[in-house]
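As agreed, record copied across for absentees:
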Amino acid sequence: MTYLKPFAIVFVVAAQTLAAQAAPALPMSNAKVRAALDLIKADNAWTMQQQTELTEIPAPPFKESKRAAEYKRRLEALGLRNVRIDSVGNVIAERRGTGNGPTVVIAGHLDTVFPEGTDVTIKRDGGKLRAPGIGDDDRGLAVVLAVARAFEKVGLQTNGTVYFVGDVGEEGPGNLRGMRYLFGKELKGKVDYFISVDDTGLGIASRAVGSYRYRVSYKGPGGHSYGAFGIPNPIHALGRAIAGIADVQVPTTPKTTFNVGVIQGGTSVNSIAGEASMEVDMRSEDAKSLATVDAQVQRILRDALAAENARWKGPRAASAQLTMRIDTIGIRPTGAQSDNAPIVQTAIAAGKALGFTSTTSASSTDANIPISLGIPAMRIGGGGTAEGAHSLGEWYDDGPNGYVGPQWAALIVAALAGVHQ
């Protein structure tokens, strides 16, 4: 049996410290902040143009470079300085503050879940725009651009530096590699607040859902289904494991989940497979609960191997024993952050100032990395409505008030970074 142990997850519980701090005041009386909000509303068609044009630039997992190059060009065209693509593919634009305020990062992710060759041409259906990735996360990318443009056009000076980012690797296969690099090297120790604009609506993901993801493989010599009958079968072992996982009991609070999402193996109907594999996903916003379900699944995987090997007797079976390999394909850290944290309260207050009440939830996003490091962070929606994320039928509808999403993001960034009154 080969088992590749997942790397350690380190997280910091920062809730008490954050809750003790006061949320930054909203700069609603600042004339340039108001001008930025007005500009975003008046130029909503520009924001929609960015969203639609970026959607039609494919960005499969690990192949975001074409979209990244275009995103860099657009940030440069807005007048931002020090725009660069780092060594893992993140696009980073810096807007210097006066130097005496908090540093804020606002990001949308460049990658989609869709493989190379997917048709990303937008089809219009009344008010709906249909295309894979149109909401998740081309909406986020457009919002980041809209905020940067508004600040530049009205000359809004923030006290703290603001980084506008298009990052790579947010979706499953990417395993948050863009954020790991951003906080581990590129901007390590420099960030005070992080905002991910991901997907649509006006909700806040203030808590990080962590995950363990494995590819589990059972291997044996395989053979003819009749002639070699009597030897252990990797597909049978996989079936035992899946049945065991399906019977796992998990808590509803904190919400903890498991899923077998992909299964592979076999050559033909009359062959004993030489290999069978599956991909397993476990999630929870609570580190202890996640570790508990992981331990249960690990035991089930070992028991399934032992049961299939023990099922068959005799010399032939003894020489055809199965082995198991567990490869880590994704680890997302969890972390504790109170909804009383200043960054969360600022977002709620900004929403109320714009006429809506936002609710908080837990999710698995780019914000997982900074939250796990004790850095105040959250994911916010970009406004509008959408359905079908991660499917070919995904659609986005800006509706009459889609501009409120980028307005919200702009007001939050201005409040967190601070502005000259």
User: Anything to note?
Assistant: Confidence is low (pLDDT under 50) at residues 1-20.
